């Protein structure tokens, strides 16, 4: 059982009211339509006997059977309805939570924060998709880190060249620095080619 501080109140199950209420409304419509059809099929023969028969005894028995069926069905329907609402609320909660988490992560990523990860509970939907997005963010972060390192090395090599060269030794050092700068620029170009803009 959950401790008092870990228990969720009902209001916490509404993560995105618009989406959850649309799903709940649609599913309730289907629930009521199916329930109405089933009840109509069960009660139709009894109602038919009540109104089509000219014998008052048959009508009385049909009416008694009709009331008996309703007395048994209504409490069961009430329990099923309550269970249905709670179940739908939990299902939409486990679906909308990850969607909100994805949206927040995408907002942060668009702002340049590659450290945000999608955290999904083991009971939520979209766990595999969250792992794919997290792997993508890790790859982007690693590539960005590598580009930053290569950029620092390139700047350092260019500063060595800019320091000037007067003698043969310094000319050789400058040539090495330029070769190193070209190598670093090639690495940066390769990393940048992974991205399409």
Uncertain parts: none
| Total count of domains | 2
Q: Helix amount, in percent?
A: over 70%
Please report the distance between the alpha carbons of the first and last residues: 51 Å
Q: Mind describing the biggest β-sheet? A: none
- Structural class given helices, strands, pairing? mainly alpha
Strand content: under 5%
Q: How many strands appear in the DSSP assignment? A: 0
Average pLDDT metric:
80
Shape: rod-shaped
Order of helices and strands: HHHH
Rg is 35 Å
Tally the helices: 4
In words, what does this structure look like?
This protein has 197 residues and is mostly helical. The protein folds into two domains: 9-120, no CATH class; 126-197. The protein contains four helices and no strands. It has helices at residues 17-52, 56-110, 127-162, 168-193. Helix 1 (17-52) packs antiparallel against helix 2 (56-110) and helix 3 runs antiparallel to helix 4. The chain is rod-shaped, with a radius of gyration of 35 Å. The chain starts with 16 loop residues before the first helix and ends with a helix.
Q: What descriptive keywords fit this protein?
A:
mainly alpha; 78% helix; 197 residues; rod-shaped
What is the topological layout?
Elements: H1 17-52, H2 56-110, H3 127-162, H4 168-193
Please summarize what this structure is:
78% of the residues lie in helices and 0% in strands.
